[in-house]
Amino acid sequence: MADYNYSHFQHLYFILTGIPGLEQKYYWMAFPLGVVYIIALSGNGIIISTIKSESSLHIPMYYFLCMLALADMGLALCTLPSMLGIFWFNYKFIAFDACLVQMYFIHTFSAIESGVLVAMAFDRVVAIWNPLRYSTILTNGVVYRTGAVILTRAACVVFPVPFLIKRLPFYRANTLSHSFCLHQDVMHLACASTHVNSLYGLIAVIFTKGSDSLSILLSYVFILWTVMAIASGEGRLKALNTCISHICAVLIFYVPLIGVSVIHRFGTQLSPLTHALLANAYLLVPPVLNPIVYTVKTKEIRRKITQAFVQTKVTAEC
Q1: Based on CB atoms within 10 Å of each CB, which residue in 123, 135, 137, 269 is the most buried?
Q2: What single-letter DSSP state applies at residue 177?
Q3: 103 located within any domain
Q4: Residue 298: which residues within 8 A CB-CB, separation 6 or more?
């Protein structure tokens, strides 16, 4: 009878962990953390508003960039309440159900971003392989349907994850390793077999991040093969230069993701500080760096943003 009761027991809340060993410096870290979130939200918001307001940017390349910015904003907003709660107010508690909700949206937006990166890779393939048919292959309808497929896939694949966690008993440790809820982190605290969770998590990762990374890799193999067929060296460099921003976005997203996945499965002997820093980089680096990369490398966006700021300044002076 006792075992039956234990098997259906769950904590009312989890305790989040900030950055181990730096608890006394949270007060000083609160300001730069707030700046990071301001950069992430305002940077992606500026890109979205710029693309929306400028008709010259209403082409598939920038539609996909807008989707990427939306996914980055979603990732930032998912972690903002718990991160600021810890570093600004030293509030480390999160309700069990709230943890599941946060977990769902973090993994969903992460899967959306991965899917958008694949769509952007396909966009570059079409633009380099057959630029004359670019507008006929990637029509607005194709772009909208692609976005709908990316969103539906992410939402459906991650949907079972909170319910698989909900069925597990939790009656021992309730301290998480991060400042937010991740499936692997919560799963390790369960007091029962987690084989089903591990198996489904592996399948979900293979179906989303695994297939997406392979698709991106094959896309760039095809791009390189196409570029090498260009006669002039200047033409090859010009074609490859259009891919630099996307390559940076892929590295910014996948390098921290691979690091977090590896340490969760094989890095149990690593210090908690390493776990915390990699997890924070996984969720904070892409929303912060992607707007900077695309603003610096995309002259159309840079020009429109500059014009908007100049116009605002002139209006204010008048």
Answers
A1: 123
A2: S
A3: yes
A4: 65, 245
- Other beta carbons less than 10 A from residue 74's beta carbon: 18
* Rounded distance between C-alpha atoms, residue 190 and residue 169, angstroms: 6
Which tens digits make up the pLDDT trace of 216-254? Answer: 999 999 999 999 887 787 888 888 888 999 999 999 999
Instruction: Specify the number of domains making up the chain.
Output: 1
Decide if 1 is inside a domain: no
The rounded distance, in Å, linking the Cα atoms of 130 and 314 is 42
At 90, which CATH number?
A: 1.20.1070.10
3-state secondary structure 25-40: HHHHHHHHHHHHHHHH
In whole angstroms, what separates CA 174 from the centre of its chain?
26
In a domain, 316, yes or no: no
For 236-287, the DSSP string reads HHHHHHTTHHHHHHHHHHHHHHHHHHHHHHH-TTS-HHHHHHHHHHHHHHHH
Residue 204 domain-assigned? yes
With 80 as the cut, is the pLDDT of residue 304 above it?
A: no
pLDDT tens-digit readout, 41-100? 999 999 998 898 888 889 999 999 999 999 999 999 999 989 988 888 888 899 999 999
Residue 132, domain extent: 16-311
Q: Torsions phi, psi of 95, nearest 5?
A: -60, 150
Secondary structure class of 175 (helix, strand, coil): strand
CA distances from 127 to 14, 194, 243 (A): 48, 45, 10
**Strands 13-15, 93-95: pairing kind:** antiparallel
Coil vs helix vs strand at 274: helix
